Every structure is written in structure tokens, then in C-alpha cells.
Amino acid sequence: MTSLTSAPPAGRTSPDRRPRSRLRFWRSPAGQPRWARPALLGIAALAALLYTWNITSSGFAPYYSVAARSMSVSWEAFLFTSLDPSATLTLDKIGGFLWPQALSARIFGFHDWALTLPQCVMGVISVLVMYRLVRRWQGPAAGLLAAGLLTVTPVAASMFGHAMLDGAVTLCLVLAADAYQRAVRSARLRSLLLCGLWIGLGFQAKMMEAWVIVPALFVGYLVAAPVRLRRRLGQLALAGALMFTVSLSWVALMTFTPERDRPYVDGSTGNSAAAMVFGYNGFNRLHAGLIDGAAPAAGAARTSPQPGGTDAPGSSADGPGASDPDTGSTGAPGPDTGKPGTRGPGAEGSGGTGGTGGAGDTEGTGGPGDTEGTASAGDAEGTGSTAGTGTGDTRGTTSRQPHPDPDSTSALKLFESARYAPQIGWLYPLALSALVHGLLRHRKAPRTDQARAGHLMWGVWLIGTAALLSSFDFPHTAYLAPLAPPLAALAAAGTVALWRAHRKAEGGARAWVLPAVIVAETAWTVRLASDYTGFAPWLIPVTVAAALIAVLVLTLRRTAARRRFALAGMLAGCVAMFAAPAAWSLSVLDERHAGSAFDAAAGPLPAGLPTGKPSISHRPGAGGGPGGPTGGDAGPTGGVGAIGRDLRTSLTPAQSELLAYVEKHDGNAKYPFSAENWAAAAPYIYAEGTPVLPLAGMHSTSVTLTEYRHLVASGDIRFALVDAAGAKSSEVGSWIASACAEVDPRAYGATDRGSEKAPAQTLYRCEPSDATSH
To answer: What is the 3-state secondary structure (H, E, C) of 439-506?
Structure first.
């Protein structure tokens, strides 16, 4: 029987072993221990259980789910990752992460579980690839432990169970490392090119975050590939060229497609995909204003962030609600410009006082039962936009303090933050000890030594990513996900390597290394867990007791008793080191601790943050409706239904009658009607995939007044839904209210003109003659 202490076995098939049937997938391949495959399948089953347990109540992230719905009904919206089915306005980032979600919704129908399912699959694949990746490097025992540790990393346990963008980029990074490992062992260009391809696809999922792995792979290959330096550099150049080509393909598509034939780029002030990607979502996060033409970046460095401040997306200072003296949009309809969209933030003020976001770059997580718009929208990733989103109800801009944890803005926040450290940082001492131990152990190895190359690659990945995350104020815990693979790999490799070294030690200082690491890891665990004694009161006593047992057993003199109980001591040490992250991750089986589609967070949250899953109930009359005509109470807008609800049936009776009225009288117009912003259009997009024209996105307006009048003059749009705030402060809304005829609410079954909580949404009918006579 192969022991846990044996070296990685050779990959050759024994001549006495019969060929394994492909149907017997539970049996280990030749060259691996018999227990390897069954154990791996057990870990994969645990991962699938954690990720899918709450799939039917995983919820929606309003901003992204609107785009996913649009992309599921329109291939043009799918290609351009557009917010609306008519592809007039993009997301404020590349929406490649939504491609799997949109395809799933197209196949299974638009449900929250259909959007989450691809992330669950990605999580299980990541775990399986993690095993293969670490097994090649340190053997099957380390591979299994790495797969298990990735599974029970709290941020991963929550992230892969919800529809969010970070799951896709994490999978791409793991697959890129897997391809790199094959390349660095054999210097095969094909494998290195595949590595570049995976990084490029990761860029489509979360842009520059996918590039965090590039320094690690570059250094590792440059140092350890078994070919001459000149060839190494040439191969890296080719792989880099492919990586940049794939990474920038969507930016190139948007750049070289004429503006009239593509949607406007939200997140930019000049319809520039490059500015949106590298400015708003890139360098401007590190320092505001580095890239011109980008919308203000929510994560940019600043001294005193304030809820709803002017640096927040959708705020009145920078968002679509701002006025621009250079609009020049009061003249007659201009020439046919094709698709609307030549203005950036503030061009038309179409958002009115309602803006387009909940204001404030916050976590984007609303509290349980929060129905008054107090959940913040924040950075676009967590758009839990609430009452007032585009409706003029400014109560929706009251957000929670963006950073209730004072350490979350510190350069040491990955270690000090009560919000971030428990989600990713349980294994810091073990991983760092493993890195130092591995580099010292193989310091005299040949240049091409794969063990040292692995420590070098994982170490650069871990330290480089941690340094980057420490340099700016990121709004969501899911940003921590790229740290999970290197932490799991180093911790697993270190555990096995330290155990092997301890077994070989004859005494002296080397025999104390493993017990010392267990003590350090236990002390760190107690420090992190001490803030949450009410969550798992048994955790600290069990951890300390297991650590004491491990240290006592592992420090026994070399006797028969030590050899007999050494493995038991090591197992106790594993309990001490891994019980805490496992407890946090297993807590996702309780929906209260599973996180949400807005933010990945397993286990309890620190004081000052709401606990449990936010309530996003859709209540009739909330901003996206005809609003007031239903007479309902205000709730979170954007047409977001209660978590787990089928949003295809989310229209209220009044909204359904309004839509039926418009479709009956629109004369086959290109757009059935326009809405103040994406949130007001959302219920109709959710329910029917209706190509409503949103006048504003998260940061940008999609049409100027000149363009809108041309759409009216050409008959492409006949109706407009405007609220009271938009009629006063939005130039397009003001023109609609003054030039177009108000439709009697009784014509489409409405009996009320709104309520105090839900500002009235007025339906107007615009005739082509209105565009030339006013």
C-alpha cells in the first residue's frame, strides 16, 4: 500500500496491470495510489454539495442579471455584452463572465439557479484541476489536500454558489496554471500558448484581474523551462502575443466597430472601451485620473470615502444625473446616426435626481428585510440598487457605511480586516512557512528543478496578488478569490513536505519545524476566530486541544510509541490547522451564512455588516413599473424579484397592462418605449425580454436629446415612461414631458398616479411631428 510519505510515484503503467475500463471512473489511473481517485471524487462531491446547496435561492445581482436576460434573448446583446436586448448600452465592464450564464438561461429559462449553475460547474472543475496541478508537483497526497483546501476556502464556497464574475476568472487562472505546468516541464510551445489562451479568456471575465498571474508564470518559465534562454524568451513572447490578442479582442471589437453599429460603452465618458477597461476598471482604481475618458472609479484611492459621495457610481456629481453645458441638444433632429449612444456620464442628465445607482461604493449587500432602499448599489459588481434607482426617490441613495470595518482600507487589510481575513486568510502562516521551507530546501537544486519552480510560481502568484489587493480599496470580498489557489497549493504542499521532513528527522531543530508551524497556525486561527465565539463556540477549544495533542505526539523522542502514534499526531495537527476554514465553508449549508449574489462571504460577518442573505423583494409600484399606477409600496427597484422568484412573472398587473397597451399601439416601432434608466427598464426586460430603451446605464447616458428626437421623428420610438424627477431634471425627460402627449392611465388599467413611496411614472406618447414642432 502506498503511504502518505512516499515520493510522487512514476507515471508508467505496470505491465501486470490490466487496462482500466473507462466506465470505472472511480478507480485511480495507473501510477496513482488506489485511494487517490475515490478520495478525489469525494472531495468533488463535497464541492458540488457546497456550491449547489442554495442554488434555487441564490438570488440575482440586479445589474448583471438584467444584462444576462438581455443576452439570453438577443445574440447582438450577447456579443457586445449589452445591458438591454437592443444593444444600446454595454455594462460598465466586459461581460464575458455572463456568456455562460446567458447560454444557461437560454437553455433552461431565466431563473436564478440557471444563472448560478455555470458557476457551480466552474467551481467543481477548479477543484478537480487543482488536484491534477498539485499532484504533478508534489504527489497525490498533496494534490488531494490542495483540492480539499480550495473547496473549503470560505470565499470560494460562497462565490461558486452564486452568479458572479469572480468564479469564471478563478477557473481560468487555475486552467492557465495547469497548462503552464505542462509547458515548464517539457518546454512545449503548445502548452504555453494554451496558458496564454486561458489568461485571455479570464480577461473577458474580469479584465485586468486575470493578469495577476502573469508575473508568476513568466518568472517560473523563464527560470525553469528546460531549453536555452533565447528559446524561452521567444516562446514567452509568442504566448504573450496570444494572451494579449485574446484579452483585447472585445476591446478591439468595440473600437473598430462603427459607433452607429454598436452599443455605447458604459463606464466611459467618451464611448471608449479601452478607457472603460483600463481606466474605470483598471489603473484608475489604483489612482484616480490615470486614464482619461473613464468614469470615476469607485475603488480608487481616497482619504475619506462617504456613502453616496461624489466618487460613487451613479452619484449626482458624476453620474448620468449631472448636467453638461455642452450638450447642444436643443436643436432639430439630426442626421441618422444609427444606434443611439454618443454621450458619456452627465451628457443629458437623463437620470434626474434619481441617478442610476444606489450611490456609494459599498459592499452592495442589503440587510435582511431591507425594503426601503437602504441597500447600497456601490460598485457595479454589487448593484443591489434599491428604492429610488432611477425613480427620483432619493431615499434609495442612503447606503450603509461602505467600510464598517476600519481595517478594510489599511494596507494590511488582508491580515487585519475582520471582513476579509476570515474569508481567505486562515492558512497564511502555513502557506508562508511552506514557501520559505520549499525555497530553502531546493535552493541548491538545478535550474530546471520542478519542485523549486513550483514554489517560485505559487509564491510570486500569492505575494504579487496580495500586494496588488493591498494597494487599493476593493469593494467586494470576491476580489480575494485569486488568492485561493496559491494559498491552497502552498498549504497542501507544505503540510506534506513538512510531514515527510519530520519523519526523516533524527532529532534536533528540524524535528521542531512541523510542531512550530502547527503552533503558529493555531495561534493565528485563535486570533481570527476569537471575534466569532458565538458562531462556533466549540472551534477554539477543539483547535487548541488538537494542537496540543499534535505537538506532544510529534515531539516525542524517537521511540516505538512515536512511530506508532506519529500519524495520529499529524492528523490532530491537520484538525488544528484546517477546522476553522472548514467550519466557515460548511456554514454555507445554512442559507443565513451563504453570502449572496452581491458579495461572496461564508460564515458570520463582522459587526456593522448585515448578516444573512439580503432581501430583495419586488413590490408592485417600485421604480421599474409604471410606478404610481399600481399604487403599491416602494421597494427595491430594478424589477428584482424576491430571491428565488421567477422574474419572468415579476410584472405587476399594471405593468403587464401597460406593456400590452404599448405593444398594441407602438406601430411595430423598434423600441416599444423608453425608460429613465436601466432600473426602470429592468422589469420589462426580465419578464419578456422586451427591447426597452434605457436612457441611462450605471454611469452613462445612452442617447442625447438630438438622437432621441430623431428616433421619435423616424418612428423608432412612440412611447416614453418618465417619472416626476426625470421630467424636471433630465433634458430628455423634460422634452418628453413638454412635447409629447400624456397617456390617460385609465387607458391601460391604472387607477393611481403613484404614492409617496413610489414616485409616479407617467406614460407619454410621442408622434413624429412632436420631434419637429418642439
So the answer is: HHHCCCCCCCCHHHHHHHHHHHHHHHHHHHHHCCCCCCHHHHHHHHHHHHHHHHHHHHHHHHHHHHCC
In a 3-state reduction of DSSP, which class is residue 762?
strand
Of 721, 741, 754, the closest CA to residue 621 belongs to 754
Q: Is the pLDDT of residue 123 over 80?
A: yes
Among positive and negative, which fits the CA dihedral 559, 565, 571, 577? Answer: negative
Q: In whole angstroms, what is the distance from residue 694 CA to residue 720 CA?
A: 10
526-550: average pLDDT: 93
Crossing angle of the two packed helices 36-52 and 140-151, in degrees rounded to 10: 10
Q: What is the pLDDT of residues 449-473, one digit of tens each?
A: 999 999 999 999 999 999 999 988 8
Cα(503)–Cα(435) distance, rounded to whole angstroms?
19
Q: What is the DSSP letter of 593?
A: G
**Over the stretch 143-185, which tens digit does the pLDDT of each residue have?**
999 999 999 999 999 999 999 989 999 999 999 999 999 999 9
CA 418/CA 425 separation, integer angstroms: 10
Torsion of Cα atoms, 168 then 363 then 64 then 107, to 10°: 50
Region for residue 417 given its phi and psi (left: phi exceeds 0; alpha: psi -120 to 50; beta: otherwise) = beta
Q: Which helix (H) or strand (E) holds 694?
A: strand 693-694
Q: What is the mean pLDDT of the chain?
A: 78
Backbone angles phi, psi at 268, to 5 degrees: -130, 160
Element (H, E) at 64: helix 62-73
Environment class of 130 (CB within 10 Å of its CB; exposed 0-12, middle 13-18, buried 19+):
buried
Q: Are 87 and 77 in contact (CB under 8 A)?
A: yes
Q: Which three cell numbers stand for residue 100?
A: 455562460
Classify 531 as helix, strand or coil: helix
530 three-state secondary structure: helix
